[in-house]
Amino acid sequence: MPALEDAIALAVAAHHGQRDKAGQTYILHPLRVMMRLDTDEERTVAILHDVVEDTPYTLERLRELGYPENILGALDALTRRQDETYEAFIERLRPLALARRVKLADLEDNMDVRRLAAVTPKDAERRPATAPPGPACASPRRHDGPERHGGDSGP
Questions:
Q1: pLDDT tens for each residue of 61-112
Q2: HSE (CB half, 13 Å, CA atoms) of 99?
Q3: Which of the pair, 75 or 145, is modelled with greater confidence?
Q4: Could you tell me if 139 and 133 are in contact, meaning their C-beta atoms sit under 8 angstroms apart?
Q5: SS3 assignment for the chain
Q6: Which one, 27, 43, 52, 69, has least CB within 10 Å?
């Protein structure tokens, strides 16, 4: 499996020249998402979470580069299909704990209006970054069961 540093380099190259809606360098978003998570596995998925959806990279190309099936499965789950409703997208990724943790971190970053130079009325409708997550959105750092830590009962 490629190292986390390799995934970071790939994401930086893949997102080169892209800007977010605030006009900032896009790679800052996957980097912020990555830093909200704990393990190299989670961070690898986080840094690559928009690569398949927003760049010419495909899951097959990532497979050729040596990424394992658990990483590819999470990335596939995090890639919204054309014409897929948001609800169907969430239902499809929900069973995969790795994808779910990364999506929660992604949502936390997307809802953080502090990253925006100016807050529009639409942005103001987002959950305040300082508010605790509601019942439908748990922290990505919570323990999800044996899949996360190979069966130990630690956090």
A1: 999 999 999 999 999 999 999 999 999 999 999 999 999 999 999 999 988 7
A2: 21
A3: 75
A4: yes
A5: CCCHHHHHHHHHHHCCCCECCCCCECCHHHHHHHHCCCCHHHHHHHHHCCHHHHCCCCHHHHHHCCCCHHHHHHHHHHCCCCCCCHHHHHHHHCCCHHHHHHHHHHHHHHHCHHHCCCCCHHHHCCCCCCCCCCCCCCCCCCCCCHHHHCCCCCC
A6: 69
At 119, is the pLDDT very low, low, confident or very high (cuts 50, 70, 90)? Answer: low
CB 37 within 8 A of CB 105: yes
Residue type, 113: V
Nearest to 52 by CA among 71, 37, 25: 71
Which domains does the chain possess?
4-149 (1.10.3210.10)
Q: 151 pLDDT exceeds 50?
A: no
Strand-pairing partners, residue 25, are 19
| pLDDT score of 138 more than 60 | no
Give yes or no for a contact between 112 and 84, defined as CB atoms under 8 angstroms apart: no
